[in-house]
Design a protein that fits this description.
Number of domains: 1
Radius of gyration: 17 Å
Distance between the termini: 35 Å
Oligomer: single chain
CATH superfamily: NagB/RpiA/CoA transferase-like
Number of strands: 11
Structural class: alpha/beta
CATH class: Alpha Beta
Shape: globular
Strand order of the largest sheet: 3-2-1-6-9-10-11
Order of helices and strands: HHHEHEEEEEEEHEEEH
CATH topology: Rossmann fold
Number of helices: 6
Length: 237
């Protein structure tokens, strides 16, 4: 995609700002009971899916209630403590490094590896109990199978609008470049979203915005990319 001229960039930035403001208001008005019902349904869809059960390595966000993100508590617990019938799983979770869109995904093996930052968001400590640096997924010897992603607004073509920090887009660009360099199988980029977060009009995006392969909603799983359609079945009700 060609770079946009200055005026177009500013118009795009303004459209995104307006969309974010509108969606934040929508989420504030979304009843807690409805949110909790959708949280349960979305996590159930993920946990019962073949693509989840058959995957071994994950990156996943740690949900923040204050931000009204789709809850991932049950999903994270299942990855860290899989059933006896499931493959052992590995998990990398995000830690923000600065205000310049730099974020790492660090390996954790227990919720005891997490701390709560000043924003009230859980994140991994930089070192393990032995004082050794935690492994970054960008330095791992094996690829992840699935990345479970948050977002603020989505459309049914996979376009995603985050909260404006750029952390996930920067990380995803780095990780997908690593996958290409290593000739690894491309991971599934799966976003979890409330019903009100999916809009009919195309979400405005730039060349740095990374689309998702699939959405998981309370109504079911929506594979979008051809990659996702090969690995996932449509489960929308």
């Amino acid at each position: 995609m060609a770079s946009l001229p200055g005026l177009a960039v500013e118009l795009l930035r303004q459209k995104k700002k307006e969309l974010r403001s509108s969606m934040k208001l929508t989420l504030r008005k979304f009843p807690l009971e409805s949110r909790q019902e959708e949280d349960a349904a979305i996590q159930k869809h993920v946990l019962s899916a073949d693509w989840f059960e058959q995957s071994r390595r994950f990156c996943a966000y740690l949900s923040c209630a204050k931000l009204r993100e789709v809850d991932t508590t049950q999903i994270v617990a299942s990855i860290l403590q899989p059933n006896a019938s499931e493959l052992a799983k590995e998990l990398y979770v995000p830690r923000v490094l600065d205000n310049e869109a730099n974020m790492v995904m660090l390996h954790v093996s227990s919720t005891n590896d997490l701390i709560t930052n000043s924003m009230g968001i859980a994140e991994p400590e930089l070192t393990d109990s032995d004082g050794s640096p935690r492994e970054s997924v960008l330095e791992a010897n094996y690829p992840v199978d699935v990345l479970l992603l948050p977002g603020l607004v989505f459309d049914r073509s996979g376009r995603r609008c985050g909260r404006g920090g750029g952390y996930y887009d920067v990380f995803l660009s780095k990780y997908l470049e690593l996958v290409k360099d290593k000739n690894w199988k491309r991971p599934l980029l799966v976003a979890l979203a409330y019903s009100v977060q999916v809009v009919d009009d195309p979400v405005p995006v730039s060349e740095t915005d990374v689309p998702v392969d699939a959405l998981v909603l309370a109504s079911g799983v929506l594979p979008i990319s051809e990659h996702a359609k090969k690995l996932m079945s449509t489960q929308l009700t």
